[in-house]
Structures are given as structure tokens and as C-alpha cells.
Design goal:
2 domains; 42% helix; Aspartate Aminotransferase, domain 2; Aspartate Aminotransferase, domain 1; 3-stranded antiparallel sheet; alpha/beta
Length: 395
């Protein structure tokens, strides 16, 4: 048995911070009223929702009326793409995205293609960056939306959002960014970034699961995704999930008030891990941009081993990591992101993603730098491919 669990999969999900849980608790039983009701406990719930809306808006430089609560980041992505497609289809049916988007965007685009829309999937370079020239050249007369993620969930690369938004604004095209990985980890101002729509999710920054939000710039038309009652100003029907919305508001408030100090510490852990592994383990490759990446993201491919085997052995040592995104971890196919940046199937299968968070320490990094090289060495000793490489070196 291991002494403790070292959790290094914060890109998949985070725990709910005690301050967030404390803010949520009264709305499960004490202030349980329906926010659409006119009696006092209903008005209390309505007030709590609006206070959370203000906190989310403040965190990303938006206005409260531009924030719509959703059930998840995936719902926010679906709503952004489908809602804009439905509202602007008379103007055009062309959408631009990238090959490394989250499945919530890619699969929505595939759905829209079946509905008669044309989608351009932009390539990325070896670091996972979209070319601004490609973005500009892909725009047509009938382009209505560009959707490029803020930061990649697997390799951590941060896109040139400001510049993409400027191109979109110049061409009169709406710009959506899936910022699920970025919000709470990167300073964001939607006005400065020229963003028209932005998706976020509470459980990525120590809030509860099952709640997200979509920012929609004032003046942007968007059709409803869920029809029914008049919640969210008639745009998103469903009785509000008051406790989770309150939790989202408190979590984003906490995440943004000490972000600079937090990121400095997390980046140090990231850098020590990357530098240590690169020095200790041969035949490895860092995936994603070296500096334009999320503070806590480490994604490394190890040649001659399977990532799943590495994960299982790390789990036996008490370390929780990932071989790809949580949303596709049940698939045997290699990561579409790693293939898009030019990795072969074999090398992509040997990837490990570690994502640091608030509870990680330098001692965790030291433990990783002791255990990972040993595990990789043991796995490679069982690899005929690695044996062939060693024999060739001896010749």
C-alpha cells in the first residue's frame, strides 16, 4: 500500500475546495427555493444566482447579462456552435475550427456537417499552434463562426487568441473559444481578446461538476439549445442548479484573486518535472509548446512503451496521471491531438499527461523523478523494439 495519493490529473477534474463547498451547502436544504418563485426563499435563490453571475462576469471581463449558466463545458460548446449555426444560417453555413479541439467541439462540428454546414478543420504545427495565416485564408464569404480552443486539454498549448479574434473581428466573423482549460488558470479579458463567445466549466478550477457557463457578447444572436421555461432570460430552459451555480461563482472568485502567485508556483513544479525527466530518461519528447502552455501541464511521450502500462504502474506507486484526455480515455485509438502534431501511432501511444494543481508540492516532483525513470526502464526491458535499439548501439 502507498502512503498517500499524488493527484496529477487536474486537467481532468479537481476537488471542490472547502470554501466552495461551504458556500454551496445552504442551498441544498436551507435556501432551497426555486429561483423562478416570487416568495422569499425563491428570491434568495434568485439573488444567489445573480451574485454568481456577477462573479463569473468579473473574472473574464464581461457584463453579467452576457453570462448564461449551463450544465457543463460540453453543453456550453454545443450551444455556442449549434446556437450560432441556427441563428446565422441565412448569412452562411461555413465554420472554421482546428484539428485538436475537444470532442465537444469536434463532434458538434460533425453533427453540423450532417445538417448541411461546411466545416474547415485547420491543421496545427508541431507545437500544437494554429497558423494565423491559415485562419485568415480559411475565411470565406459565407463563414459565420471561428471556434478555436484557448488552451489544449492534452498538450497545454495556448493559442494566439487575441490575434485570431482580431482577424475574426476584421472579417465580420464571430469568434468562439473553448476556454474550459484556461479559465481559472490563465488571466482572461474577453474585451481585450476580441472574443464573442466563451465556454467554461466549474470542475476545472475547484468548483463542482455539472455546471458551466457560456459567455455571449451583447448583440450576438444565439438560438436556444434547451427549450422549455424562461430561465436564463429565456435562452436556456431548466430549473437552475442553485448550489452548483453558487459553487461555480465562489470557485472562479477564488481562482482569479491569487492567480499570479498560484501560477508562479505551479509553473515551477512543471518546469522541474520537465527538466528532470528530460535529463534522466532517454528517448522522450515533450509535447506542446515549450513556453506557451498551461502552467500545470506536462505531456511527454516515451518511446518503446505503452502509456497505459506506465499509468498502471504509476497508480501502484500512488500517482494519478493520464495518457490523454479524460473524455476519450476509454478509446484504444491514439490521441487525435498527438497525431495532429505529427507523432506516429507508436509514439503517441506512449504518452503521459501530468497536470499539477493546488495540492501538489516539490516533494511530489522529487517522487516523480525517482519513480518514473525506474518504471520506464522496467517497461523498456520488456520491449523487443528497445532491445533492438540497444543492440544497434553496441555494434
Amino acid at each position: 500500500m502507498v502512503d498517500r495519493i499524488i493527484y496529477l490529473d487536474h486537467a481532468a477534474t479537481t476537488y471542490v475546495k472547502p470554501e466552495v463547498f461551504d458556500a454551496m451547502k445552504p442551498y441544498f436544504s436551507e435556501h432551497f427555493g426555486n429561483a423562478s418563485s416570487i416568495y422569499s426563499i425563491g428570491r434568495e435563490s434568485k439573488k444567489a444566482v445573480e451574485e454568481a453571475r456577477e462573479k463569473v462576469a468579473r473574472a473574464i471581463g464581461a457584463q453579467p447579462r452576457e453570462i448564461y449558466f449551463t450544465g457543463s463545458g460540453s453543453e456550453a460548446d454545443n450551444w455556442a456552435l449549434k446556437g450560432v449555426a441556427a441563428a446565422y444560417k441565412q448569412k452562411g453555413k461555413h465554420i472554421i475550427t482546428s484539428k485538436i479541439e475537444h470532442p465537444a467541439v469536434l463532434n458538434t462540428c460533425k453533427y453540423l456537417e450532417k445538417e448541411g454546414f461546411e466545416v474547415t478543420y485547420l491543421p496545427v504545427d508541431g507545437d500544437g499552434l494554429v497558423s494565423l495565416e491559415d485562419v485568415r485564408n480559411a475565411i470565406k464569404e459565407n463563414t459565420i463562426l471561428i471556434s478555436i480552443m484557448f488552451a489544449n486539454n492534452e498538450i497545454g498549448t495556448i493559442q494566439p487568441i487575441n490575434e485570431i479574434g482580431a482577424i475574426a473581428r476584421e472579417k465580420g466573423v464571430l469568434f468562439h473559444t473553448d476556454a474550459v482549460q484556461a479559465v481559472g488558470n490563465v488571466a482572461i479579458d474577453v474585451e481585450e481578446l476580441n472574443v464573442d463567445l466563451l465556454s467554461l466549466s466549474g470542475h476545472k478550477f475547484y468548483g463542482p461538476k455539472g455546471v458551466g457557463a457560456l459567455y455571449v457578447r451583447k448583440g450576438v444572436k444565439i438560438s436556444s439549445l434547451i427549450h422549455g421555461g424562461q430561465q436564463e432570460r429565456g435562452k436556456r430552459a431548466s430549473t437552475e442548479n442553485i448550489p452548483s451555480i453558487v459553487g461555480l461563482g465562489r470557485a472562479i472568485e477564488l481562482a482569479t484573486e491569487n492567480m499570479e502567485e498560484y501560477n508562479k508556483r505551479i509553473t515551477e513544479l512543471r518546469e522541474k518535472t520537465i527538466e528532470g525527466l528530460m535529463a534522466k530518461v532517454p528517448y522522450i519528447k515533450l509535447n506542446g509548446h515549450r513556453t506557451k502552455r498551461l502552467p500545470g501541464n506536462v505531456n511527454i511521450s516515451f518511446q518503446f512503451i505503452e502509456g497505459e502500462s506506465l499509468l498502471l504502474m504509476l497508480d501502484m506507486k500512488g500517482v494519478c496521471g493520464s495518457s490523454g484526455s479524460a473524455c476519450s480515455s476509454g478509446s484504444l485509438d491514439p490521441s487525435h491531438v498527438l497525431l495532429a502534431i505529427g507523432l506516429t501511432h507508436e509514439i503517441a501511444h506512449g504518452s503521459l499527461r501530468l497536470s499539477f494543481g493546488d495540492d501538489n508540492t516539490l516533494e511530489d516532483v522529487e517522487y516523480l523523478l525517482k519513480e518514473i525513470p525506474n518504471i520506464v526502464s522496467r517497461l523498456r526491458d520488456m520491449s523487443p523494439l528497445y532491445e533492438a535499439v540497444k543492440n544497434k548501439q553496441k555494434q
